[in-house]
Design brief:
With about 375 residues, the protein is an alpha/beta fold. The chain has twelve helices and 14 strands. It has two domains: about 240 residues, 3-Layer(aba) Sandwich (Aspartate Aminotransferase, domain 2), CATH 3.40.640.10; about 120 residues, Aspartate Aminotransferase, domain 1.
Length: about 375
Amino acid sequence: MADLQAQCAEIRGEIMAALGEVFDTSSYVLGPKVDKFEKDFAAFTGSRFCVGVNSGTSALHLALICAGVGHGDEVITVPMTFIATSWAISYCGATPVYVDIDPVSYTLDVEKVEKQITRRTKALLPVHLYGQTAEMEGLLELGRRYGIAVIEDAAQSHGARYHGRAAGTMGLCGCFSFYPGKNLGAAGEAGAVVTDQPEIAARLRSLRDHAQGKRYHHGEIGFNYRMDGLQGAVLGIKLQHLDRWTTIRRALATRYHELLSELPLQLPVEEAGHRHVWHLFVATHPDRDRIRAELEVRGIQTGLHYPVPLHLQPAYAHLRHRDGDFPVAERVARECITLPLFAEMTAAQQTAVVDALIEVLTEVV
């Protein structure tokens, strides 16, 4: 699915030098490497401010707090994503209100959002899934009309664009994960929030550091969500290569589309006006499990993103959702299969995936 060792090998000298600077200065928590990465990532996204934290989950949590989400509130989001999106809502004492996904883009179906807005709705939380942004224009208009904050879950979409606007820069805050397997991945856990609002940035910086206005003075309940210096150093180096890696990912996705277009497989789509960064290449097929098993026999690893939609997770059984409540998300969960795609993937490796798929789909399934 990915080869993190190959990525590290390519830039090992740069990374080790940056890590050495952290050890030389003992700047292990926040510090100059994190400061520099925050400035550079803000510039990369076109945001005024970036606040580094210890995970994408923490980024979502703090962004929702800054949007005023609290106990008894509701946040509209999708059931088809990693569960961290809903965790952040629950951490605030709020309730995730799910809306089904679009059958083509797999992002939030904007046409179904308005009917779920109530007086308790405090935020809209679209997910830019698999590397492509949600349809933001309609969501932003709903946010303006109802006075509801829009928080972007851009954990999978570093560098993605929507009609020229960068993922994470269209709402009140944009939240990123730098989990190692992401397009921009740390050497461990890390995340960030971007925003154009100085008061939001200031509060984010306070909240991540035990809500300290000044040392040992705490104005509200805070958190230990700080990014460590080693992660800031690694991310600062990798950010310099991200545009090149994205170009490679896009070329690999294009080649998949060319080579797999005649197979009975629903391939993912790059929507008009979008720049997809192909964090994941997720196709669908009704006989997904058999295909995965046959590919595994042939030495091809695949992934599932995600096999159980959030409304059917035991952790959210109290919401009393049932099979059939969100049919598109449920179908995608049953049928999704993630094919290997990473910036270090060779043409020979991709050809091996394609040849195996052709064999499985034409001779076995």
